[in-house]
Design goal:
Number of helices of chain B: 17
Number of strands of chain B: 4
Number of helices of chain A: 20
Shape of chain A: globular
Helix content of chain A: 40-55%
Strand order of the largest sheet of chain B: 1-2
Structural class of chain A: alpha/beta
Structural class of chain B: mainly alpha
Order of helices and strands of chain B: EEHHEHEHHHHHHHHHHHHHH
Strand content of chain A: 5-15%
Helix content of chain B: 55-70%
Oligomer: heterodimer
Distance between the termini of chain B: 31 Å
Amino acid sequence: MRKKVVSVLLTAAMVASLTACQNTETKTSTTAASENNSGEEETQAPETVEVTYPIVDEPITVTGLVVSPDTTYSEDRLVWQKVEEVTGINIEWEFIDQEALSTYLASNDWPDFFHVKFTSGVLNDYGVLGGRFANIYDYLQYMPNLQQTFEDYPAAKAAATEVNGEMYELITVEKSATTVGSNRPYVRTDVLEKAGVEMPTTVDEFYQALVDLKEFYGEASYIPDPKQSEYWSPILYGAFGTEVEMAYDNDKDGKVYCNYTSDQMKKYLEFMNKLYEEGLIHQEFLTLDNTVRLDLAKSGNVAFIGGAEGNNLQAADFEDGEFHLDCGVPLTSEYDDTQTLAGVAGVGGGSRIVINAESDYVKEICQMMDIMYATEEVVEGSGLYGTSFCYGMEGKDWDFGPEGSGTYTFHTPESYDGSFTVYQYGEVIWANLGRVDALEGLVTDTVSNNQARQQGFVKNVLPYMEEDYFPLTLFKFNEDEQYVLDNRLADIDSYVQSMKGKFITGAADIETEWETYCNTLNDMGLQEVIEVYQSAYDRWVAAVAE
Amino acid sequence: MKKGSKKISGVSRLSLGTRIWRARQYYILLLPALVYVLIFCYGPMYGLQIAFKDYKMALGIADSRWVGFRNFTDFFGGYQFWTLIRNTFVLSIYSLVASFPIPILLALILNELRGKFKRFTQTVLYAPHFISVVVLVGMLNVMFSPTMGVVNTFLKQLGMEPVYFLGKPEIFRHLYVWSGVWQTMGWSCIIYLAALAGVDPSLHEAAEIDGATRLQRIRYINIPTIMPTIVITLILAVGRVATVGYEKIYLMQNDLNIDVSEVISTYVYKRGILNTSYSFSTAVGLFNNVVNVVLLLIANMISRKVSETSLF
């Protein structure tokens, strides 16, 4: 009897607690609606207020949070010290690990601003729904450099504007020799030369090169990207038709479509399957870990490699101690004789600045952060402007090379043994920020892996990239759209990824199973996903055109 | 004796307060554990309600929107639901069947060994338990690689074709289960060794005098002695059938074996945690736990009827 009474009480308690939770539905909807209304009012063009330095008459102190910084060398950064010097605003930095961020946000004990790239979920939760982040549009009149950046890069404004019309993030605009997106077809030219093989320009030449290299070295000379989306994958895929995007794209009328089931994808996978069957690509490319991939790249027997390898090869890995690292050119074939690659937005990478709406110094922080978008030094002799938030102060940490040389020079302290990257992220900046376009198209004059790759991009990749791009990663979604994506996308992406691997390795037969693959994707709701992307794309086009 | 009170095993039935007061020293000793369970096991159950909500961090648990069973129907109606259920149960039951009896056999064998050899064998068997899952999967990758692995090198020397073990879905389950057996059997047998240590030596002496062989003594003395431990361990194991840890599977997973390696926990990790769909993750976790509790109750009931040994 006692057990029954306890059971009834427990059940009643559970039902009561769940029923109590039901009462919040109306409240949340109302909040969202009011946010939406206010957002529409906030985007009106402001009048610009001239900013003078120092920004404040009396020094003030603000707190900033950095997530998972490298504090091995320093717990401050030279660029931010210069910012403090120029603006009169002292910054006290706080550090937490990435894993602790959610808990930190839930604590409500926030700093004045965050130096972190939040997920869209956090922006939506705390910004759109919670109203906890400052709406930058309210302070745009104090940010002339940001206004100018939005004029120069309309995509930056579109990418920073949430679905409610407000802006919570100060995003990064980056145009450099390495702004190439997924187009990184790295190749070891010494491996080609040793075997007497020319850099391929067509699919047939690529195939023949692999045959010749295997004959010469006795092993496969191409390690494909396991995800089939980067490095040589888009280069090869682009050769089998006119499409350059491997996933979603839009046509000239603005209609969004998906390339997962296109004939071009089928041809590409058939070609990859042929390479796999003939042992011309590494048989374990789907399961190799990065260490093994790098070791294979270092072996001197593999020519066509991916990012984990290309980014990490050092001079000592080459027989003569010199970099023989390059990029391949876009390939042509009987299906397409144009050499084109997918374009990239150049916005939205790097880190972000997000300001606490409850800070006492939102205006001052906005004025301070406006320096990140300046195209010339804000105070004469300071060397501080947008590009500084990636590379440091001009004249101190780097300089333009001689006019017409197409180069720039990094100045690295001797203690860093020539590695500017370590110095850059160890002492100069926390992470890339702001408007970084002063070095667009230029390469470093320091002999390094960076230089070799940059030269490859400038010569063989950047000239072939389309101006248009499909801004998939920059889309903003409303709650209903996000719900569709949450329900559909994980299954679709996982299935496509798995089937690509199976088609290439022959675990699934392309001829007999292609139709089933296409039908399965439709059953999984691919069309719904395309419709969501269509809505997001339409909004994007409208935002860019504003 | 007061009216209504009964005498059980010679002890008068007293009021609850009196009994607690009399045993207060034991309750004080129990208190830390009780507080721990209340804070860390029952307290967080408040958060279970987000399984029925569209949880938003900024709004908190109480203010997030109530969506009823939407997260559950999303999971049940998902394209992969039945695949996930099948893979989870097949892998879990296979693991249970393969890994449950081996530690018992091992304990019975170790119990018969004596001296330094026994200690050495035990150490060798326990050692894999301390290898991290990441290292274990790394070892599997290296050992079973078609181009560099020791297994395929051996096969090639025998004139056989190399096998892409890690990419073959039909091999994945065996690799997962038997590598787990190898890693856990030594550690898992400790509980049975402890139970065997409680066997009354006089029973063995009497059996020896009666001419019982070693196998007969194991069968008629050792196994019956540890049977309650075996039953309890089995009931607890059945209560975990719907749960397969995601770390090892996730590390072993690749595009070629995903049809058999995608289980509920890996799916929840990808969709729930990586996409920050906390409500969805909680709903699936709750579903998992309900299935586990039902299985545990069934196993407990069967055990009580068959062997008279049960958890409660």
